Amino acid sequence: MYSIIAFMGPSGSGKSTLQCTLGWKKIVTWTSRSPRNGEILSLAYNFTDVETLKQMEQDGKLLEMTLYNGNYYATDLQSFFEVLEKKSYASIIVDVNGAKKLKQMFPLDVLIVGVFAPIEDCKNRLLTRKDAYTDSRLKTYKDEVQNIHEFSDIIINNGIVQQVTSLQIVSLLKSSIIGMREYDR
Prior knowledge:
Helix content is 46%, strand content 21%. It is an alpha/beta fold. It has a five-stranded parallel sheet with strand order 2-7-1-8-9, sandwiched between helices. A four-stranded mixed sheet has the order 4-3-6-5, sandwiched between helices.
């Protein structure tokens, strides 16, 4: 039974909003980039240097590691093991590499939710949050949408018009997963 929901999709599609709506513990990933204004250590990311991430990878502690815009982003395995050991619930935002690895390692424990939104909606959201990398993030839009169709267990259309429905779907997923686990006991 699912214990972890992993959201994947293009930048600006609303993954973080849906993750917050879910209200489950967030699996905090790692990055080699510097914290942005207002980002808090271990809340947004675990911030570290490239050498530490590469050592973690060598030691087999990472699920995956990706280079994006000159910075490394990584997901450690221990986070998943802790959720599964405690029989609790958590969520994470992943790219296609993370989704592939999660499906390989935890096929019965992780639900991959693809989050789609039209490119104009994504662009407007990125511009609203004054994202410095809007253009480079949108360059990968087509590939990311293709990946959603290939690797997601369920796809949510989170365009501006459908946003309320998307939030309802996430709430429904949450109650269904918790309900099924209670039923199995």
